[in-house]
Every structure is written in C-alpha cells, then in structure tokens.
Amino acid sequence: MGPTLPDPTPDRPERERLGPTRPGALRVYDPAMAEGRRVGDDTVSWQVTKLAKAHRALVGDALAELGLHLGQDLLLEQLWRQDGLSQSSLVARLGVEPPTVTKMLQRLERAGLLRRERDPDNHRLWRVYLTERGRGLQRPVRDLRRQVERRLLTGLSDEDRERLVALLARVTANLHEPRYT
Predict the structure, then answer these.
(1) What's the rounded Cα separation, in Å, for the pair 25 and 64?
(2) What gap in Å lies between CA 44 and CA 28, rounded to an integer?
(3) Nearest to 130 by CA among 55, 76, 65
(4) How many CB atoms lie within 10 A of CB 59?
(5) Are 84 and 128 within 8 A, CB to CB?
(6) pLDDT truncated to tens, each residue of the chain (181 aa)?
(7) In sequence order, which residues have a C-beta less than 8 Å from that of residue 174 and are 6 or more positions away?
(8) What is the pLDDT of residue 115?
C-alpha cells in the first residue's frame, strides 16, 4: 500500500470526507480526488485514460487497414464537409499545431488522397482538395466510425448515451477553464 496523505479535515466523519468509494449514477465534484486522497482505478482520470488508450488502439488498427493513420481521418472529414479549405482553416478546425497539419497533408498527398494548390486570389494561401481516391474513403471511414460507436455504447440506453455525451462535453469544457486554486 502507498503512502497515506494526512487528512486536512479530521473533524468531519470519514464517509463525508472521502465521498463515494465507487462511481455512482450521480457523482459530483469529489474533494477527496481534488485533494489527492483518491488515486488509481477509482478516478475519472484513470477511466478516461483507459478508454482513450483502448479507443486509440481499436481505431488505429481499423484505420491502418484503410491505409490511414490516426488523425488523418479527422482531416479528411473536414475536406469531405468542405473541399478546398486552406491549411490554416484545417489547423483551426482540428485544433492542432500547423506543423501537425503540414505533416498530415504531406503524407496524404504522397498517398494520393489529396492535392494542394495555391489560392488563385491569394498566392500566400494553399488550398487543399480531395482526389477521387480521397473521396472514395468517405464511406469506409464513416462506416468505421459507426461501428466503433456501436461497440463503444453497447449496453447503454438512449438516455445513458445522451447523458454520457453531455457529461463528456462538460468534462472537456472543464479542462479549458482556469484551474482550481
């Protein structure tokens, strides 16, 4: 067993100080977790990490069968929605750094999935266009996403699914807010 942290609130009953021992249907802000007294597989962070790793492995393997790397499907999705985007638009839409998009574009261009052309009205901009081969991946990639979604949500009711999406969106938003002090 690891080291035990001192309890900063010894006057409160233990159950009240520690909160629920396992995730429940309505788990709220957990002071024990925030204070570092809760670690390991009973934390949201641990479960999110396990989920992310499993999801990444599953999707990565499936994308590899289509000749794609993780993230390239997301870039292609933006072009399937609006072909001819600028590289800077792709950076903004994907929320990644410009060198990341540049490297993805180089790989996808070498694979014959897209082409880059200078904007005729602004020669500083490069526009990105899908090739026929790139457009041809739309259906298999979207089918893959549907299969992953079905597998991921197996056993959850429609209500559970809606709640999960809302909770994940809230947790993600929390990470973009200023830190607790």
Answers:
(1) 37
(2) 11
(3) 76
(4) 16
(5) yes
(6) 333 223 434 454 444 433 334 344 444 555 665 666 656 677 888 999 999 999 999 999 999 999 999 999 999 999 999 999 999 999 999 999 999 999 999 999 999 999 999 999 999 999 999 999 999 999 999 999 999 999 999 999 999 999 999 999 999 998 888 776 5
(7) none
(8) 97
Q: What is the pTM of this model?
A: 0.71
What's the Rg (C-alpha) of the chain? Answer: 22
Query: Please, is 78 exposed, middle or buried when counting C-beta atoms within 10 Å of its C-beta (0-12, 13-18, 19+)?
Result: middle
pLDDT for res 42: 77
Neighbours of 113 (CB within 10 A): 23
Chain mean position to CA 90: 16
Report the sign of the C-alpha dihedral through residues 174, 176, 178, 181, in that order. positive
Domains defined for the chain, CATH in brackets: 71-142 (1.10.10.10)
